Amino acid sequence: MLLFATDLDDDAITVARAGSIRQYCTGYQPERLRHYFVKEDAGFRVKKTIREMVVFAVQNVIKDPPFTRLDLLSCRNLMIYLEPRYRAA
Predict the structure, then answer these.
(1) What residue spans of 28-76 are helical by DSSP H?
(2) pLDDT tens digits for 23-70?
(3) Residues 61 and 5: beta-carbon distance below 8 Å
(4) Which neighbouring-strand residues pair with 55?
(5) Pick from 81, 61, 72: nearest CA to 2
(6) Predicted local confidence at residue 32, as pLDDT
(7) Which of 49, 27, 45 is nearest to 37 (CA)?
(8) pTM, two decimal places
(9) Within 10 A of 84 (CB to CB), how many other CB atoms are there?
């Protein structure tokens, strides 16, 4: 499996690529944390085997549209930034 994660902001990609999670781990079941994360001093980090399944890249979807053969495309918070001419009718 390969996941393609993009954002227009290079800093956001850098943070996501690191896979470091600090304040959001409360409430997770301990077995889930052990399965997907490694404990670190400052919190948790997504296991390397999972991070290696993700390709992180800076991308402007208006100027450089995503691949056409995708199984799933999720655009979290994208629509609020688009001008009306780019929104689906």
Answers:
(1) 30-36, 48-51
(2) 666 677 888 888 999 988 878 899 999 999 999 989 887 787 766 777
(3) no
(4) 4
(5) 72
(6) 85
(7) 45
(8) 0.69
(9) 6
**Alpha-carbon distances, residue 70 vs 20, 65, 76, 82 (angstroms):** 27, 12, 16, 21
| Closest by Cα among 81, 8, 21, 86 to 47 | 21
The first and second tokens of residue 47, run together, are: 């296991």
pLDDT at res. 42: 79
Question: Residue 6 is which amino acid?
Answer: T
Q: From CA 7, how far away is CA 5, in angstroms rounded?
A: 7
SS3 24: helix
Q: Do the strands 37-40 and 54-58 form a parallel or antiparallel pair, or are they unpaired?
A: unpaired
- Residue whose entry in the numeric block shows the structure tokens 């056409």: 68
Strand partners, 54: 3
Contact between 16 and 69 (Cβ < 8 Å): no
Contact 37, 46 (CB under 8 A): yes
